[in-house]
Amino acid sequence: MKWIAEVRKVFPPAWRRLFFFVLVGLVLIVLIGSAVPLDEVQAREVLKQAQDIIPETITTQAIFLNNVRAALIIMIPGVGAILGGIIIYSTGLVFGAAGETLGIFGPGLILLVGLTPFFWLEFLAYSASMTQSLYVGYGIYRGGVRMEAIRTVLLVFFVILSLLLGAFLEILFIR
Predict the structure, then answer these.
(1) How far apart are CA 86 and CA 68, in angstroms?
(2) Using CA atoms, how far apart are residues 163 and 158, in angstroms rounded to an integer?
(3) Which of 4, 106, 135, 163 stands the most exposed, by the fewest C-beta atoms within 10 Å?
(4) Buried (b) or exposed (e) across 23-33, using 16+ Cβ within 10 A?
(5) DSSP 154
(6) Per residue in 63-97, pLDDT tens?
(7) How many domains does the chain have?
(8) In sequence order, what are the residues at sequence separation of 6 or more whose Cβ sits closer than 8 angstroms to the Cβ of residue 78?
(9) Is the dihedral angle over the CA atoms 149, 152, 156, 161 positive or is it negative?
(10) 143 lies in which domain range?
(11) Are 78 and 131 in contact (CB under 8 A)?
(12) What sign does the CA torsion over 30, 26, 68, 174 have?
């Protein structure tokens, strides 16, 4: 169990607290995005824009690459946190639009998907990426980035593994 002590050194209590608040914040942002009132025309336009981004054939690889790209963008020091908020809000907007076409309230659809493990694997990865974005940005500002470099490498592995597992589970859910 020595490795737990090492993990705690790399991820101190302040990092873990911020991670928790970021996770809660991202869930709230996706819920807010999904609750935006859209009429049928607006909902179809949002879904059309989403279809332009999503590949025609949804595969494990496509889901994984899309999610990793988002997580790595979110991990950009400082600015990644802002971009992550936009990405997560936009995801909520797409869920709201899908809900509108299905006659389901958007946040209800998010809560339904929130019952799946891939939802939480993705949100844990995005939250870790955003937390690290803030920490690296602060580290650059204060001039101490050595620990942030170590933590970032570990988090990239965590994010990749979480999103790979999430993509496998999501494709099972879709099929």
Answers:
(1) 16
(2) 8
(3) 4
(4) bebbbebbbbb
(5) H
(6) 999 999 999 999 999 899 999 999 999 999 999 99
(7) 1
(8) 133, 134, 136, 137, 140
(9) positive
(10) 2-174
(11) no
(12) negative
